[in-house]
Backbone:
């Protein structure tokens, strides 16, 4: 396939459009789009099957991260008020919930563990970065990051589709094929 518009230009225009998504009153995390956009290409490129895998895995990963934040909010000082006690509690919560996340990856529905970690990391960056329509609210951060991660596969698809690709056969007439070095035209050999 040959692109009528270079992929680099299309992808850059789409990337620029994310400024309007993040730079509004909702203060959404536009970078979360890039995480799942890249993830789409890591899976082999835009397809409905790849998008579905990410759309299932990323919110699940974000949900595990949400649970960590909520548990730490309510029980962060259960082992004491000191920094070591708080760190120990945090380590225990992460140990348990991260293990649960990875075991959840054994389920066919959530078999994309890297996708869960995309959502996991995106949630923490959204929450602790103060993004979302209600900064500091863990639930608002979850909704915001799930919405933005969901756009990544869409942007990946658009980045390919908006190049307006054409088949190589359509791009060059069959009657003559230009030679790369001399510029001479050579008729194709009969079949």
Residues:
């Amino acid at each position: 396939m040959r692109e009528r518009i270079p992929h680099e230009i299309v992808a850059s225009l789409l990337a620029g459009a994310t400024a309007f998504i993040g730079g509004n009153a909702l203060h959404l995390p536009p970078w979360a789009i890039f995480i799942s956009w890249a993830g789409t290409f890591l899976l082999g490129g835009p397809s409905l099957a790849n998008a579905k895998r990410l759309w299932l895995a990323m919110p699940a990963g974000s949900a595990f991260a949400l649970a960590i934040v909520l548990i730490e909010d309510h029980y962060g000082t259960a082992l004491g008020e000191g920094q070591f006690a708080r760190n120990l509690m945090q380590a225990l919560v992460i140990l348990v919930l991260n293990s649960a996340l990875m075991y959840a990856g054994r389920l066919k529905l959530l078999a994309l563990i890297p996708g869960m970690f995309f959502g996991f990391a995106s949630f923490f960056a959204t929450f602790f970065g103060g993004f979302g329509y209600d900064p500091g609210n863990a639930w608002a951060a979850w909704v915001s990051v799930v919405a933005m991660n969901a756009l990544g596969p869409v942007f990946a698809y658009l980045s390919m589709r908006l190049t307006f690709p054409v088949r190589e056969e359509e791009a060059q007439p069959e009657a003559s094929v230009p030679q790369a070095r001399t510029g001479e035209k050579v008729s194709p050999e009969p079949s």
